[in-house]
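Example 3.2
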Amino acid sequence: MTPALRFFVVVLLAGSVLVSAQSSSGALLILHKSANVLSLVDPSSKKELGRVPTGDGPHEIDVSADGKLAFVGNYGAGSSPGSSLSVIDLAARKEVRRVDLKPLMRPHGVWVADGKVYFTIEANRAIARYDPATNQVDWVMGTGQNGTHMVLLNKDASRIFTSNIGSNSITVFERGANPAAWNATVIAVGQGPEGLDLTPDGNQLWTAHSRDGGISIIDVGSKKVIETLEIKTKRSNRIKLTRDGRLALVSDLEGGELVVIDVAARKETKRLKLGRMPEGILVAPDGSRAYVAVNGDDYVAVIDLKTLEVTDRLATGAGSGPDGLAWAR
C-alpha cells in the first residue's frame, strides 16, 4: 500500500468512526411542561438542536421503535385538563399531528409497544391505545381505579401495568385468548403509588409510593407483593431501574433528592441532593448515566452510574419546567 493510499484509508476509517459515533450518540428529548415545548439536546455538547411546540402541559413522552416519531401526552395545566397527543417528526423537528382525544381527558404515562401508543387517561379512570397508522384511538380499557397515572408494558406486550395513585393500587392487565380481551388483577400496595418499572428480566415490578415513602415489589407471575421497602422519601415521583438491574433510582419531588437503592441487597446506597422538584428519570441506552429532570430549578442533572455523582447540568431555560424525558437515535 502506497503512503498516499494508506493516508486515504486512515482518513476514511476515521470519518466512518466519527459518523458512527454521532449516529449512535442520539439526542436527549426533554419535555418542558410549563413552556409547552419539546427540546432536542445533544448530551455531549449540551447544545440544543431544536424546539417543537406541543399541546398544553406535556408530561410524558416515548419514541417509535424506528426513532422517527415522538409521542407526547398533553396532560393540561391546573384545572384545565388536556385532551391531546402530539405526534412529532424528530428529523424535521416539527409537530406533524395533534390528535384530539375528547372525550378522553388527562393523557399521561405514554408507552410505545408493537407500533402503537398506550397511555393513561386519568380523568376517565382508563387506559387507551392510539394507532399512528390509522390515526385512530382503537382501544380503551377502564381500570375502575382512581388516579390511573402511569403505564408500562412488558417486552412482548402481553402485560400492561398501571399505577393508580388515588386507589393505592397497581393493576395488571394480561392478554386473553381473544386479542381484544384483557384480564385485570388489582393489587393493593402502599399509599399513592406513582412511579413504576420492571426489572430487566420482567419478573418483578417495582413501584414507589408518593405518600408514605415506601416501595412495593410485586412478583409478576403470582401478582402479589413480595416485599415492601421503607426508603423514607417525602414524595416519590418516579422510579427507574438501571439497565443491568443493579440499582433502582427514585426521584423525591418534595425532598429534592435522588435516592439510589441496591436492588439485590434491598438497601439504600446513596442520596443525591439535586434541587427543587426532581421528577422524570431516564437511563441512557448504554447504561452509563442517568438523567433527572429537576423541574423547580430548570435543569436536567446528569448522573454517572458508576460513581453515583452528578457530573453535569443541562440548563433548560427559566420557567421551562422540565419533566418527561426520552432518547432519540
